[in-house]
Amino acid sequence: MAQQEFSDAIALLKADHRVVEGLFSKFENASGDGKKQQIAEQICDELKIHTLLEEEIFYPALRGKIEDDLLDEAYVEHDGAKVLINDIMAGGAGDAFYDAKVTVLSEEIEHHVKEEEAPSEGMFSQARKADVDLVAMRDQMITRKEELKQQAESRGLPPAEPAVVNPRAA
Q1: Which residues, given as ranges, of the chain have pLDDT below 70?
Q2: What is d(CA 89, CA 156) in angstroms, rounded to the nearest whole number?
Q3: Whole-structure pTM over 0.85, yes or no?
Q4: Fewer CB within 10 Å, N side or C side of the chain?
Q5: What are the Cα distances from residue 76, in Å, to 11, 145, 154?
Q6: How far apart are the first and last CA of the chain?
Q7: Per-residue pLDDT at 4
Q8: Distances (CA, A) of 2 to 5, 127, 128, 142
Q9: Is residue 115 within 8 Å of residue 123, measured between CB atoms?
Q10: Each residue's pLDDT tens digit, 50-87
């Protein structure tokens, strides 16, 4: 993945959003449990990698430089998605509620993306106005993304870990 491909960290994250949106669309149009499960697992891997990039690199760099409420909500939204991601990965396309879980995950991600990409008020807009080096952050994120993609291909990614929601409280 070439650094020049993305002008900065935000361009990289937006490109990830478009990839996942395309995969959700493919899932909706897929027929057959095997194909649906393959696409759903690809969605889950993409989202695991994306949430790690945001939680390890992007969000910490923005703490104290953009609205804290936006960051706090983003972490909680990630955790809600992680619960569904782990459930989808543990199941199979023939399971009850499988399609519904993928659909709800799609809706949650769509909401999250709108909040990040909202003009002027969104996280990305605020990040552009903040004192952060989005190009250096892009380089760091590309390196980490390559590591995670290699791990996904060689031995698979571990279950998604909630960052702020206590799963035992439910």
Answers
A1: 1-4, 167-170
A2: 11
A3: yes
A4: C
A5: 23, 22, 29
A6: 40
A7: 58
A8: 5, 23, 22, 8
A9: yes
A10: 999 999 999 999 999 999 999 999 999 999 999 999 99
Q: Is 112 helix (H, G, I), strand (E, B) or coil?
A: helix
pLDDT of 99? 95
Main-chain dihedrals φ then ψ at residue 140, nearest 5 degrees: -65, -40
**Three-state SS for 30?**
coil
Cα angle for residues 62, 72, 106 (degrees, 5° grid):
105
Alpha carbon 97 to chain centroid distance? 22
Q: Nearest Cα to 8, choosing from 45, 61, 52? A: 61
